[in-house]
Amino acid sequence: MVETQSIFPIVSELPEQHQPPVCHQRSYLINGEIKTWKGDVKSVQSPVYTSENGKLAPVNLGHFPLLDEAEAEKALAAAEQAYNKGQGEWATMKVKDRLSCMETFIEKMKVQREAVVRMLMWEIGKTESDSAKEFDRTVEYIQDTIDAVKDMNRKAAKLELEQGVYAQIRRGPIGVVFCMGPYNYPLNETFATLIPALIMGNSTILKPAKYGVLLLEPLLKAFKESFPAGVVNIIYGKGSLLGNYLLGTGRIHVLAFIGSTRVANVLKKQHPKPNRLRTVFGLEAKNPAIVMNDCDIDATAKECMLGALSYNGQRCTALKIIWVHEDIAAEFIQKLKQNIAASKVGMPWENPQITPLPEPDKPAYLQELVNDATSKGAELIIPHGKDDEASMVYPKLLVGVNSEMKVYHEEQFGPVVPIATFSSLQEPIDYLTNSPYGQQASLFSDNHETIANLIDPLVNQVCRLNINSQCQRGPDVYPFNGRKDSAEGTLSVSDALRQFSIRTLVAAKNTSTNKRIISSIYQERSSNFMSTDFIL
Ligand code: G3H
Question: How far apart are CA 454 and CA 326, in angstroms?
Answer without folding.
Answer: 17
